[in-house]
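Internal ticket - ligand job 444, 4-fluoro-L-phenylalanine:
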Amino acid sequence: MASNSRAQFSSKFGFIMAAAGSAVGLGNIWGFPTQTASNGGAVFLFVYLAMICLLAFPMLVAELTIGRYGQSDPIGSIRAVWPKGRSGAILLGLAAMITASLILSFYSIVAGWLVGSFAGSLFDIVGLTTASDWVNSFGPARNLTLMVTFMLLTMHVVKNGVHDGIELWSTRLMPVLFGLFAILIIYIFTLDGATEGLKMYLIPDFSHLSPKLVVSAMGQAFFSLSLGVGTIMVYGSYLSKDINIPKTAAQVAAVDTGVAIGAGLLILPAMFVAKAQGVQIFSEAGELLSSDTLVFTVLPAMFDTMGGAGLVVSLIFFLLMIIAALTSSISMLEVPVACAIEELNHKRSTAVAWIGGLITLIAAVIVFNFGALFGLVIEITTVYGQPILGLCFALLVGWVWSRNKLLEEIKQGYPELEKGLFWKIWPLYVRIVCPVFMILVFFA
Ligand code: PFF
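stdout (structure tokens):
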């Protein structure tokens, strides 16, 4: 795909579903409920919501705009808004690419666990209990097999490109996921213990409020909206010029936040339902046990309460979860792949093969050094990498890019831009408030 015949999303709905597909994933269903449960429930929820509105949404607009203006991979798009900073653009683009790839390396391991839960339900239905036990056990061989399976799926979709891969999958399957989610939330509240989880989720205990919590919430907000790694920039570059960027960004942020809130409404009550059934969730001291695998412990306990139907529901649920993870993982892989296609003139299939292979290798190293590397890679990429790169992108839009060009770009899909409140606040906000806020949170 040469840069003069760039692919595009074919409709606004297709773009929203693809961007929401990137945003909605393990971050919502695994990361957010786990962080909420380990950070005092409601307090984390409130700080997280504030971070989404005050930081993540303005940054989402910024990244989309850079991408649509540049009409290129992240390196090319950054170069377009910063023509004098050639090596700076390469450096930033490379940093984004590496962060996206490292995120994919741990993401594929967790998504592999979903593949395991799905396969486990399938094996249970056909009576293959030994196979089911194996895919549900926790060991390097099992983790490796499942991770590689998930990476192959991701590579397959990205190989098919924007139209037949990313957009097609996202548009068809995201709405089904939202529907099933709603049904499960209603169901969980018919079970014993659920309201205890709801209390934890909605009644704040401010003793948990700390600088660390604020940093975690900021990292989670960036992770959930796929910011600071070039993903949104690449998707923005496939966006047609007549789309209203601020409005579309608000819709994507709303869908993502809605799913995170919904996931909390499901998982926190499910934790207490599982506890009521004798599953150990908290230690004697009240700390969450094995937070990495929390969701994989409490969800099966919920499905068990459904009797025979539980197996089928769990099969559908995990299938949809795999798809949610897939619509995110393809957006991560698209970052280095777009760079290889447009900067190195590689064919899409070649780029997918070598980059996907390399990321699988890194993920394999993490699988075999799980205790030492898994948490470390998550921390480096999400707590530091994403917000720091986000800060750089804010500085780029606020200080480097000419305000007129910025105005012209957004105006193409939003002709009345200058009359609205958005343009009165946002440029200055991204220039001053976002950077200062991010720096403050870091040094708090
Ligand atoms: N937003 C995704 C999620 O919440 O699961 C994760 C993600 C996707 C992070 C794409 C970064 C990225 F570039």
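Auto-summary: The chain has 18 helices and no strands. The first helix runs from residue 12 to 23.
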